[in-house]
Every structure is written in C-alpha cells, then in structure tokens.
C-alpha cells in the first residue's frame, strides 16, 4: 500500500478532525487574512499556533517537511529576488545588483507569511474530508442563485481529490526515473522534461478514466449531501480565532 502524503486526508479524532467544516473554512480565511498583514511578533504567535495544531492533529511533521521541499525552494528564490532588488542602502554590492537590510527583512517577511498560509492550508486539507468540503462550499453558495453551487462544489471536491493524486504520481515517476539513473544526468532541463511529460500523460489518463467512470455510473451533481451540524466546540473555536485575529492586529500596532 502506498504511503499517504501530507496532502491526503488522515482520519482522526482530534478537535480539528471533529470541527464543523464551515467553521474550519471561516477560521482558515480569518487566519490567512491576518497572516498577510502580520509582522514578526504576530507571525511568531501564528507559528506557535501551527505547531500546536500539528501536534494535536497527530500529523507527521517529517512528511510535511518532505512534501514542502519544493515549496521551500520557491521561498528561497523569492527571498533572493526580494533581497537583491529592493531599492535601499546596500549592504553587499554585486556587479549589477546589491543586497540591502530592508530587502532581507522584506524577503524574510514575505516568505514567512506564505509559509504560514500554506501550512494552515495543509492542516485543513489533512483534517477535512473532500466530501465535507464539497458540502460546505455548496452551503456557502446557497444564498447566490446566479452561481451554480452544486457544480462549483463538485469541481472543488474533484480538485481536492486530484491534488494528492498528482503528488502520488509525481513521486512514483521520480522513483521510476531514479531506478533508471535519470537523476545522474547533469542537465536539469532534461530531468525536468523527463518528469513533466510522463506526469502529465498519467494525470490526463487518470482524469479521463475518472470521467468515464462517472458517466458509466450516471453520476449527477444533484446528490444528497451530509447534514452539517454545529456544536458548542465549533462556536468556541471560531470565537477563539476571531480573538486571535484581533490580538494579532493589536500586536502589530
């Protein structure tokens, strides 16, 4: 059996697993908005909250770091670009660019914010069933008659299911290439092409098989959804997140 990645739903009995998905979505939106406006003091508080959420959810921390390794490369690239192309008093001069303390600070701040949002999104995906997300999205879109809520919710549910599948396909393709010695090639463009093309072919084939299977089973977007019931713990959690957002805004002032 293939090992689950960090982006798969992992069943559990923790507080985050049992919360109403509507309240989790609202909490995630509030925390994301707060993090994009946060500074080091507030970001430190959010980082502690993330570690606590990972701890109570029993999520594999090593697996999370492994799955985000390419995202860390992107963060390093963003940091370097921000540090080298910020107009301020330079600390280190290069031939055509310079590194300034303001650029280093801005780059670290942007990367920290992005990392917090991604980690919260990963925790949300790992503790929420895709079917529950579909039901919640449809519930949120009910007041808007001009938006096909069922169709949008179905599409989002399929996306949530396909993201882990694509990651699994990428891992299998990398393992297959490693067994054939492709990683020994020094040309990174060659290795990238040999990864992307088979991955796209396998992904499109999976999508085509899924579409055929849905048609064969007369799948319809008009389905009976799971009843959404809120409990006292949901309201307490949402109130706590609201208080946390207010606290973060106060810390930064």
Automatic annotation (TrEMBL):
Cellular compartments annotated: Membrane
Q: Which GO terms describe its cellular component?
A: plasma membrane
Keywords from UniProt, A to Z, are: Cell membrane, Membrane, Transmembrane, Transmembrane helix
Q: Has keyword Membrane? A: yes
What's its membrane topology?
Multi-pass membrane protein
InterPro entries in the cross-refs: ABC/ECF_trnsptr_transmembrane, ECF_transporter_component
Q: Which interval of the chain is the signal sequence?
A: none
Report TM segments: 38-59, 71-92, 104-125, 235-251
What is the designated name of this protein?
A: Energy-coupling factor transporter transmembrane protein EcfT
Q: What is the organism field in this record?
A: Candidatus Desulfaltia bathyphila
């Amino acid at each position: 059996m293939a090992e689950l990645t960090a982006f798969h739903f992992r069943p559990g009995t923790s507080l985050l697993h049992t919360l109403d998905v509507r309240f989790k979505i609202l909490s995630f939106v509030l925390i994301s908005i707060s993090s994009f406006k946060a500074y080091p003091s507030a970001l430190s508080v959010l980082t502690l909250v993330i570690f606590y959420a990972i701890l109570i959810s029993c999520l594999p921390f090593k697996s999370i770091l492994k799955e985000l390794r390419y995202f860390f490369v992107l963060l390093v690239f963003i940091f370097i670009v921000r540090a080298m192309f910020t107009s301020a008093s330079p600390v280190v001069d290069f031939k055509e660019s310079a590194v300034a303390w303001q650029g280093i600070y801005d780059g670290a701040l942007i990367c920290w914010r992005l990392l917090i949002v991604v980690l919260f999104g990963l925790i949300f995906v790992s503790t929420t069933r895709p079917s529950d997300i579909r039901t919640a999205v449809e519930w949120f879109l009910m007041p808007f008659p001009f938006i096909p809520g069922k169709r949008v919710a179905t599409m989002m549910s399929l996306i949530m299911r396909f993201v882990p599948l694509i990651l699994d396909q990428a891992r299998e393709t990398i393992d297959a290439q490693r067994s054939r010695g492709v990683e020994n090639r020094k040309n990174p463009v060659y290795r990238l092409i040999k990864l992307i093309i088979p991955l796209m072919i396998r992904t499109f084939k999976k999508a085509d098989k899924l579409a055929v299977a849905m048609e064969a089973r007369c799948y319809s977007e008009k389905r009976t959804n799971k009843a959404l019931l809120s409990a006292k713990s949901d309201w307490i959690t949402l109130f706590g997140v609201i208080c946390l957002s207010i606290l973060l805004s106060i810390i930064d002032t």
